[in-house]
Write a structure and sequence with these properties.
The complex is a heterodimer of chains A (287) and B (654). Chain A is α/β, with parallel strands linked by helices and 287 residues long. Chain A has 13 helices and 5 strands. Chain B is α/β, with parallel strands linked by helices. Chain B has 19 helices and 29 strands. In chain B, strands 3-2-8-9-10-11-1-12 form an 8-stranded mixed sheet, sandwiched between helices. Chain B has a 7-stranded mixed sheet with strand order 24-23-22-21-25-26-29, sandwiched between helices. In chain B, helix 9 crosses helix 11. The chains are: A alpha/beta (287), B alpha/beta (654). At the A-B interface, helix 2, helix 6, helix 7, helix 8 and helix 9 of A face strand 5, helix 10, strand 13 and helix 14 of B.
Chain lengths: 287, 654
């Protein structure tokens, strides 16, 4: 839609939950486009860029991070009420993020292992993607999100068309880029066939398997791929752990991790907790 | 050494090979050939013999590829790797055009700037020559051609090298494409330990060959060349029985094996990307932030992606992976023959090696369609033509329902559209998108399109005002055979938006009413507020030479007419179906029910015509999205007789 000059600019907010700010940085790093975007949108809330706070209502709100604390849970409901369009950005917001690996283990044990005074830490037992709590209108995947996809989303919002965000496997982009399959040619396990494209098949371009940053694609045949990992010489548990990255909590990666033996998280957490209580620290230092 | 005469066969010693590369470069060509990168022999730029994979080969198996070292010094002792030459004549991404739309709604369309590189392909195998031949038929052999492909192809010189090291995944022998080189090359080489037997296939090849410092090939060398070819052929064997494969495969559309393959298949698209003949594409637009300028870009797509057979409102004709695998395999080995007069497979084995989970098409073919009859269709003559958008102006907007409008569009170039054939046009708006829309009326200086807002593009189109401009392709596809209905009774059955493409039939009949027998028009809509063309329906109903019935699924307080499905309108009609032709358009389920009801009234499949809905992207049979069995719905349809569709009609997941 072509906007008349008199139309007020849409109000854009950026909201952060449990996250590393990397996705916000992607927006901040749009050096060529950010000024042009700022001319067409009123960016009213953007914690990574300005400490100036402004509440909604928003025409569009970009949400980074997963819901990990009781406070964030309250916040996301408030943001939803204030936003016409809620777009989750990044692996944390769309899949729970790396912090959602705690969902496979004992939250209290982790808390006790990491913090000297766990009683001061208020966190939820699990870190969840935003869509588990409120309706999400669109999502940008990735850890971090892809700058070109972000510009595409903003452009589509401004021009009133459907954002062109492909639903294909990483393999499609990988082969268009002319890359050699790392799994077939080098036996390196790669999540590309079950992962949503968006990164431009970055890791296979460096002879690494895909880590699944963009999360599972539609109809991801995770069980067939895990069988192949095993036939490439990985143990079932190793195969399962390959799915346990930034989007490991997303189905069906989550199911694969559990089916293939789970993560050694609970025992690890227990061990650390034991150390934190003074039993193992010195012993480790000496051994 | 002396230059040999044209009739004699030349021999190029290994030390002279660098000279060949230089001659190709002197001819102004970038030489593309085999080179080692990322653990494989890929095709890249070759500047020097040192770039070639000398002494290196590859071990291949389903889902497995590893480089191996040879004892000899050969440059070409490997079987085809992950790259196929299609990448260079049919690029993975290609800017097709640039378009603009200003604040006043004026639009313009132009071609994208394009540079066609001058290339030499070095090391093309027999199977790959066959693949290029197949792509020639796909892109240049039909009524619509891909001019970008034509230009790239014409600018390429081909140096073929006969295969002597087939892989365990090869089956060119079965597909009849190799390993011996027969045609399609400019220069052909047979590599021996000490050098190359050289022959030219074209004058362009000959111009290079005559500048090489060649010896005359000895009888021993020629025998050695023939022997290694025979050995290669023996090693491959004949793994797939292709006799009758077309019919055998299409007889097994309901095989339980499809579901079993889907348990393994990742639908990752590696097979279609690696395949040297797969040609499916999708088109998208990139625009500036204001939507003023946009670039239309085409990219390789695959029948394995979720969106490939999806249509508006969330419909998907091939929702399951087993549907997509069946589409791919049956297209490649069967319906391709109906479309292009040749199999789509050359037996290069890439889809086997590069399948991450090692699905082997040879095995699947033998399990699904075990052996043995031969089938082939004719190739169509080439008529260089590509539809280009012309700018049309919105002359009038009529709101039909809450979500549907009819746009009257005029062409500024004065072409008489009232007689234009074709069923639909691709309507494009810069930075928004392009959608296929059926013509709902032909006008002397333009046409009418009835558009329902079902997605972002149609939402923008239905919001256009008088004076706005859009891009329109020439009318595409095969429409209703209205002329064939002369001297017959006519039954027209529409459901929902399906009345729009049927309206030109009524126009055509009314323009020469006496030539037709009885005419019955039956129309069903969801609710009274969804009824299209209410005034025209009333006008038609007022005539004594038309029978008009309208029904709705759900009535409201204002509705005094019939309620129920559209077939109820003629359940008890007295007309005789054996004298009638029927034209049916609407949602898939409504078409199914109508066709059953019509058949029950004596209409034979050759006299029932339906319009099929499918995902259309290019509109001219080049992108692959809309395929149904052997048909491209855009090019061969969208209107088909039931007799034409045969058992494709009503089949799930096709």
């Amino acid at each position: 839609m072509i906007r008349a000059a008199t139309t007020p600019h849409p109000r854009l907010g950026v909201v952060k939950l449990a996250s590393c700010d990397g996705c916000q940085l992607t927006l901040l790093n749009l050096e060529d486009e950010l000024l042009a975007i700022a001319e067409r949108l009123d960016i009213v809330e953007f914690p990574e860029a300005t400490s100036h706070r402004s509440n909604g209502p928003y025409d569009v709100v970009l949400v980074e991070g997963s819901v990990s604390t009781p406070e964030q849970l309250e916040q996301i409901h408030e943001v939803r009420r204030e936003a016409k369009l809620l777009v989750t950005i990044g692996a944390c917001a769309t899949a729970g993020g790396i912090q959602a690996l705690r969902n496979f283990a004992d939250h209290d044990a982790f808390r006790a292992a990491v913090y000297a005074h766990p009683e001061y830490i208020e966190s939820l037992a699990t870190a969840q993607p935003v869509a588990d709590y409120v309706k999400v209108d669109a999502e940008l995947r990735g850890c971090p999100i892809n700058a070109a996809q972000l510009v595409e989303l903003v452009t589509a919002l401004l021009t009133g068309r459907r954002p062109n965000l492909p639903d294909e496997a990483v393999c499609a982009a990988c082969k268009r880029a002319g890359r050699v399959c790392v799994m077939v040619a080098q036996g390196i396990p790669c999540l590309g066939p079950v992962t949503m494209t968006g990164c431009g098949a970055l890791c296979p371009g460096y002879s690494r398997g895909c880590y699944g940053c963009f999360g599972p694609r539609e109809q991801a045949n995770v069980s067939s791929l895990s069988r192949q990992f095993i036939s490439l010489g990985r143990s079932p548990q190793e195969a399962g752990r390959l799915f346990a990255g930034f989007t490991g909590y997303a189905e069906p990666y989550r199911d694969a991790i559990v089916e293939l033996g789970g993560l050694p998280g609970a025992s690890l957490a227990g061990e650390r907790a034991h150390r934190a209580m003074g039993a193992g620290v010195n012993a480790e230092g000496k051994s | 050494m002396t230059n040999v005469t044209k009739s004699a066969i030349g021999f190029l010693p290994r030390a002279g090979f660098q000279h060949l590369i230089e001659l190709l470069a002197e001819d102004g060509r970038t030489v593309i050939g085999p080179t080692v990168a990322d653990g494989a022999i890929v095709y890249g730029e070759i500047h020097h013999v040192a770039d070639l994979p000398q002494g290196i080969g590859a071990e291949q198996a389903p889902g497995h590829y590893r480089l191996v070292h040879h004892a000899d010094e050969r440059f070409f002792a490997y079987a085809v790797g992950p790259t196929s030459w299609k990448r260079f004549v049919f690029p993975p991404t290609l800017a097709l055009g640039e378009s603009r739309r200003d604040d006043h709604g004026h639009v313009s369309f132009g071609p994208a700037p394009r540079e066609i590189p001058r290339l030499a392909f070095l090391g093309v195998r027999a199977c790959e020559l066959a693949a290029l031949g197949i792509e020639d038929r796909v892109f240049l052999g039909g009524p619509y051609t891909d001019e970008d492909y034509r230009a790239r192809r014409a600018n390429t010189l081909i140096v073929a090298v006969q295969c002597a090291e087939p892989a365990a995944t090869c089956f060119c022998t079965s597909m009849g494409t190799g390993p011996g080189i027969r045609s399609g090359h400019d220069i052909a080489l047979i590599e021996l330990d000490e050098g190359f037997i050289v022959t030219a296939g074209t004058p362009a090849g000959s111009a290079i060959v005559t500048r090489l410092d060649l010896a005359e090939a000895t009888a021993e060398q020629l025998t050695a060349g023939a022997d290694q070819l025979a050995a290669a052929r023996d090693r491959i064997g004949d793994p797939v029985v292709t006799a009758g494969l077309h019919d055998r495969l299409l007889a097994k559309l309901e095989s339980p094996r499809w579901a079993q393959i889907a348990e393994r298949c990742l639908a990752c698209t590696n097979c279609t990307a690696a395949c040297p003949t797969c040609f499916c594409t999708s088109v998208s637009q990139r625009s500036d932030l204001d939507g003023h300028t946009a670039t239309t870009e085409r990219r390789w797509d695959s029948c394995f992606t979720k969106g490939f057979a999806a249509v508006a409102l969330g419909g998907n004709f091939r929702p399951r992976v087993q549907d997509r695998y069946r589409q791919w395999l049956t297209h490649k080995f069967a319906t391709w023959i109906d479309q292009f007069g040749t199999s789509g497979c050359v037996g290069c084995g890439r889809c086997i090696t590069w399948c991450p989970v090692g699905i082997d098409v040879r095995e699947e073919l033998n399990v699904i369609a075990p052996p043995p009859q031969v089938s082939a269709g004719p190739a169509e003559a080439a008529q260089p033509h590509a539809p280009r958008s012309s700018v049309f102006r919105v002359e009038g907007v009529r709101r039909e329902t809450h979500d549907t409008v009819t746009l009257a569009l005029s062409t500024p170039d004065g072409i008489d559209w009232s007689t234009a054939r074709g069923e639909f046009v691709m309507v494009s708006l810069p930075a928004v998108g392009a959608v296929p829309i059926s013509i709902s009326r032909r006008l002397p200086r333009g046409l009418e399109l009835t558009i329902r807002a079902v997605g972002p593009t149609t939402t923008v189109l239905t919001g256009l005002e008088r004076g706005a401009e859009v891009g329109l392709s020439a009318p595409l596809g095969h429409g209703w055979p209205v002329a064939a209905a002369q001297e017959h009774d006519v039954v027209i059955v529409g459901g929902g938006m399906g009345l729009a493409p049927l309206r030109p039939i009524v126009d055509e009949i009314l323009a020469a009413r006496s030539r037709y027998g009885d005419v019955h028009i039956y129309y069903g809509a969801r609710t009274p507020s969804d009824v299209l063309y209410t005034e025209e329906l009333a006008a038609w109903a007022a005539r004594d030479d038309l029978e008009v019935g309208v029904t709705v699924d759900r009535a409201d307080a204002t509705w005094l007419g019939r309620v129920g499905v559209v077939t109820h309108l003629f359940d008890r009609a007295r007309w005789d179906g054996t004298k009638a032709l029927a034209f049916v358009c609407g949602p898939e389920r409504m078409i199914q029910a109508t066709v059953n009801a019509l058949a029950g009234r004596g209409l034979t499949p050759d006299r029932i015509f339906i319009s099929m809905e499918r995902h259309m992207e290019c509109g001219v049979g080049l992108c692959g999205h809309c395929q149904v069995g052997p048909f491209f719905v855009c090019k061969d349809g969208p209107v088909f007789s039931l007799a034409q569709l045969g058992d494709v009609f009503g089949r799930e997941g096709i």
